[in-house]
Give the backbone structure.
Amino acid sequence: MLSLGLLFGTAVFAPLLGAIIAGLFGRVIGDAASRIVTIALMVLASVCAVAALATGLDSGSQAIAVPVSTWVQAGGFHASWQLRFDTLSASMVTMVTVISTLIHLYSVGYMAHEKTPVSRFFAYLSLFSFAMLMLVSSDNLIQLFFGWEGVGLASYLLIGYWFDRPSANAAAVKAFVVNRVADLFFMVGIALVFLQFGTVAYDNIFALVPAHASSVYHLFGSDLRAYEVIGVLLFIGAAGKSAQLFLHTWLPDAMEGPTPVSALIHAATMVTAGVFLMARMSPLLEYAPVAKDVVLFIGATTCFFAATVGLVQPDIKRTIAYSTCSQLGYMFMAAGCGVYQAAMFHLTTHACFKALLFLSAGSVIHALHGEQDMFRMGGLWRKLPVTYAAVWAGALALGGIPPFAGWWSKDAIIDGAFVAGGLGLYGWVLGVAVAFLTALYSWRMLFLVFHGRPRVPELADHAHESPFVMTLPLVILGIAAVVAGWLLYPYYVGERQAAYWNGAIFNGAENHVLANLDQLPALITLVPTIAAFLGLGAAVVFYVLKPELPGRLAASMRPLYLFLLNKWYFDELYDLIFVRPYRALARVLWHGADEGIVDGSATGLARLTAGGSAQIVRIQTGSIAVYAFTMLIGLLALCSVFLFFG
Amino acid sequence: MTVPFNWSLALPEIVLSVCGLLILVIGVFQRKNASGLLCTGLAVAAFVATAVLVLGAPSGVGYRGTFVSDDFARFAKLLALTGAALSVILSLDYNGRQKVDRFEFPVLILFSTVGTMLMASSENLMTLYVGLELQSLAIYILCAFARDEVTSSEAGLKYFVLGSLASGLLLYGISLVYGFAGTMEYGGLRAALSDNAPVPAGLVIGIVFVFVGLAFKLSAAPFHMWTPDVYQGAPTSVTAFMAGAPKVAAFALLLRIMAGPFGHLAPQWQMLVELVAICTMILGALAAIPQTNIKRLMAYSSIGHMGYAMIGVAVGTEAGVRGTLVYLATYLFMTVGVFACIMAMRRNGRPLDRISDLSGLSRTHPLLALTMGIFMFSMAGVPPFSGFFGKLMVFAAAVQSGLWTLAVIGVVTSMIGLYYYWRVVKVMYFDAPEPAFDRGARPVGAVAGAMGLVTALFLLVLGPVTGAAQAAAAVLFR
């Protein structure tokens, strides 16, 4: 048990050590040493994580607490630094460390041409990984929130890494602010959990959940079930981190960071936190059907929304970013249906192929010296054979073509939505539609970048394949994208899932969705696959056979095209609803309240005082006659006051 | 009144007067060019001996009801003696360098102090007047002591002319009171005013005249106008004395007659004192702002302080009187200390008195700057320095008695006061340094340092001082 705790603890804290060394002493030890230290510690963390997962599965025990130290002991409020080892946290830790290690490695090549020292970059990467590990391995909600905020901080630092670019700074601030808005709800949710259960530790909460199932809040004259309120609040927090609809606006802008950062955010850290939270809180969510429906509805809608937007984006990274948003919608849809296992499964496979796609995109951008517009690429497959193969693997996995990774997990979710019924059918319809769209935009990207004739020859002429440190992660992730689904399916959702999860994920007594997955008619299970092939076919028609067709289509349906190109006008809408009124209010408070009243009263008083003092000094002439006269006037005044008012 | 003629009650005053005469004789028989050291030392010794006698003096009323010795008088006398002794010590070096070290200087201060003590012990309006005149006459001479300098002569003359006017008003007021009440004894006046018969207007006018006469000595607005000119013109050694002990005596007198003989008219004269206190506080705060001369600044500062101390008088309760006494004690030490620092401002043998002369003092004379800084902070009423406690007590007394206006105006003017006090600190610590001052004399440094310590560590003696002030205040309300 000690060894397991030690392994798990090392996996979590090794990145922190790397971040500290590279961050505080990077200037002293130099760039090369910083790179080596952080990568070595990440490798150590990955090895330990894998070993811990294997040991834990072997021993077959349930959740194990790994105490680190006490933190808060205030009255009835207790929170300690304690790691929680169960299959859920261990599989997350393994996934995060492995993906993060590959991204660290890749960054060596990608950031090689930076003019400033990159020790800072590696420190941030490690810090990001540590925060995410802290988040997933925490034993209570407060520690989870610590990791949650750490992730927010690190993402802010990394998105704004190129601090000399105004757009990067704006994007970093946007990501931070949107996340803070969601965090506010999350904090209220945590506070309500504490009020409800008197504790923030998972074990205690989960033990008490059935007992408090009937408690209600009286609010605005209506009775709200406590669990529904808490569930929705936690979901809003999760939606902020995981970029679900209404809180998604930061994610595409986060592309301003270096591409490895995008890969990290989209695959291993940050956006998966929300999905993880849903799975982690499954014992509570299972008692909150309305909250689950909210999750399902928002998830499915996000899934569709993001896919449609991704369809028309000209920027290669933005296309993949919207794809992430859409895939996260799938995961929330699964959580909303009660198949958290499928959500976790898709999370894991998605991490592999999304990291692959981002790193490949990075490789393309690297080769083209920063060009991101797909309409300025084309015909690159001869120049970048490894990247080309990697994108094929990623597209096959993302597009849901059997037997690649995405097919397994996505099908599980879409089937789960059908089995769940009710609102699940809404999810199923959208899920199938999105399967088509996903395949379409995946191959749209692939064909635009690699096929046809180079649209800007001078760019393509100078393109060259990336160095080995960058292609190695591509190869590893490419293999994972091919085999991960097939390998992991039995454990995550298949026949061995109960033994694998071992109670880490809770399904309610009435929740038979997972058990009934296999009993679907074959035709229904085939529908998403057919949709994916149709999407692939459409992409071939649009971008290989008749390349002039998309332009004509866009011209004939211009309003729709603009609507999609402008991301359903969410940014403009928020600008109108929130940003402008807020700015107007701030302006009023600034000029009116602060400058006018606060400053004005201060300067006014100062002016009054100065004026008064000037007047008083003026009568001090030095003449005895004036002095005596003043005395007598004073005497007269006092006498009058005394006689008339005394 | 049990023993009509008890010599021992006035023993300290008698001893001090005799000492004064002796020193005068010794001074006359000294060689022409001898320094003032001998007479100064003797004067200090006389002050110390008198203080010891004051501590041991019995309580009671004597000399046919013209003289009283009680806790209140003793408190005021001790403060006055301390202030006088310290200023005599300070004067030695300054007068020597200014070539005005004549032996009459300590003698004059000594006689002035006798007058001060008489005032504190007065039990009759006549004693009051005699004591006040004795004190004032000595100070008139002292102001013009550097008689070769135009400013000093002007200061003496100004003070004398205006002081005479004030004395005339006071005397006229006393005669009015006597005319309408038929007595000048405090006890008799109190008895005459305590019956519910309507108070004759003439008596009221008399009280106002008496009050105005005292307000002049306190330099309360609008009777303050002599203060800046005289403070600036007089030799700094004289200013250091004037700003301390005489103020304490005038306050003691004001407290004694307002709470004593006129105590039953308190509701009527309270408004008067309030009005004057408010004028004084506002004037002290505003007029100090544009000053560039440190002595003039301290003159306005002292006017402001008198306004704050007057809050305790206006409140008219035991807590108020206690507050005023504590305020005066802290004020005395701060003032003596500040003037000690000002005396140290001297370059190439010439005394300096502009605020800008203090520029960068923290680098040329760090200790002096620190001490001066302590006084400035204390005068502004910043805790934990002594000035804070005095202000706190008078404001608290005002609030307890429901005189919110006074307390609020006091706080506001204190904040305005912060500006000009901190400006001195800013000049000392943040401006570019001027050339260093001449080497200072030991006694001046010692007095400045001691006063700085008292001001900074006043918290340690707060208990005893407050206790003594409480005992003194209790006497007036017995």
User: Anything to note?
Assistant: The interface with chain A takes residues 158, 161-162, 165-166, 169, 201, 204-205, 207-209, 211-212, 216, 221-223, 225-226, 228-229, 268-269, 271-272, 275-276, 282-283, 286-290, 416 of chain B (CB under 8 Å). Chain B has a mean pLDDT of 89. Residues 35 and 96 of chain B are 8 Å apart (CA to CA). Residues 150-181 of chain B form the longest helix (32 residues).
